[in-house]
Amino acid sequence: MARRDSNGLTRLGLLLVLWLAGLATGYYALLAAASRYTTCTAHSTGLACRTSGFSLAIALVVGVVAVVTAATVVSYQRQTRWNVLIALAALIALGVCVFAAHGLLDTA
Question: Are 87 and 22 in contact (CB under 8 A)?
């Protein structure tokens, strides 16, 4: 019984880190989406100031939600090592989303 509780606590800790990273990444992606309406002037030509940049930022937000949701669902009733691998893969995917949002914000 102690082994089962240990797996649950490990999963809970990993998901807590993943959800916090997802919240931070999602917030950063929302900032990229809002940059069109806050930092762009009437004659700005950067990607973040165009409709395609806004669409890309919204796709990043949806991607963040999908990564966190998929990692949460897939890690249910798995062994500890699989939970660690799933969390690492999800954190790498969130890192890619952060770099994409940062690159989008740089074009504003």
Answer: no
